[in-house]
Amino acid sequence: MNIPLFFLRTPYRVREYMLEDDKDYSLKSTEILSPYKRTQKSCSEYYLAENHIESPIEGLGQTAVPNTYVKMEDDFQSRVYNGRFFSNGDFYYCSSQDEIKIYDVSDTENWKCVNSFVARGVSWTITDVDLSPDENFLVYSSMNPVINIIKLNSDAISSTFTFSTDQHSILLNQIDPGYGIFSCEFSGSGTEVLVGTRIQTLEIHDLVKKKLAYRALNAHDDDINTACFASEGSQVIYSGSDDSLIKIWDRRVSGSVSQGVLIGHREGITYLSSKGNGLNLISNGKDQCIKLWDIRKLMSPSESRDFIRSHQYQMGFDYRMGRYPLENYHKLLAADNSVTTFKGHKVLGTLIRCHFSPLETTGQRYIYTGGADGKVWIYDSLTGKTIQTLQYEEAEENEYEDTVCRDVSWHPYRPMIAATSFSGSIYQYSYV
């Protein structure tokens, strides 16, 4: 009998268990690697060699934090929403409202656009983009029931997908009106896509079997703005919503009841980022703060419902309309079990993202985020202090419409951050 287990709790760690009769979610192999994976040394290897660094964490150290505006890539005709480096650091992908571009960034002084794709069937904007683990495919979503898969390597022979066109559209829902996708992410195997929707459902779609693999109906009481796997290959999922809650799910447990809830934000969650260790994550919220979490401190669903009913703390703040009324209010909710709260950046106008700094060069010590004023904020997760704020030269305070920095990406091996901007540009910051 398949008895799903969620966590074995110990004072020191949380371990996930995969039972013998569970599905095999192992990686599908590809015969031809993505053209974005270099056969010779990557720029990261050259960088470490040139600087005589044997151990990235010990050599480059935790002091090489980006501190200076360097340059701008101004290639888009509309707002730039999403942007991330490839795992080897040689390439960078980003999306505007209706276009996706890939840059060769091996020469940091001279970024070259090596590919671009016009998005299909966009409703308002491309809401999210994710790169498959084998780096052969991109998935992107919009405010409609369709996800699109882009094949980056036309010669790739993959056992995962059967389509032959460069872009393939997959209709996820034909029934529910108002269905739109805020968040999409490949699974660790690259064979499934996790989505968070406007109709409060959390779903996993199997790209191989071409069917719905998991669905939590009424997972939240409002839009699910963000969802991610706890770690690569994990069966545990984190979701964040405009109902201000973060929920923990085990896909091996059917039904729409979460395994636990994290309470602490007073307003909606804009983004979640997992540390990848199955224990820690960070959240960005419309209450103008980031919170660091340990999921061993979660509340049960019944406890969280009781607390929400008795306190009714959420104001329903519309972050498109101005400053947050409680911006300078620092009292925590009674049920707040977060490890640390970070404040200073502004979460207004769009679903601004936050991330952990790279493991290879910083040990994931830092937490960094964009902001509505165009700044990049870097916090120290150990002390809770602001380490650095970065801003390009043309940005001006309070002109949020054009300066919003929605997404930020720290190069995996170089002390460099790329920040997307609603001005239609990508700004680069480095350690000088």
Automatic annotation (TrEMBL):
GO (cellular component) term, any one: Cul4-RING E3 ubiquitin ligase complex
Pfam family, one: WD40
PANTHER family associated with the record: DDB1- AND CUL4-ASSOCIATED FACTOR 11
Protein's GO biological process: proteasome-mediated ubiquitin-dependent protein catabolic process
SUPFAM superfamilies referenced in this protein's UniProt entry, alphabetically: WD40 repeat-like
Keywords: WD repeat
Protein name from the UniProt record: Uncharacterized protein
Record carries keyword Transcription regulation: no
Domain of life where this protein originates: Eukaryota
NADP as UniProt keyword: no
Residue windows of the WD repeats: 217-250, 262-296
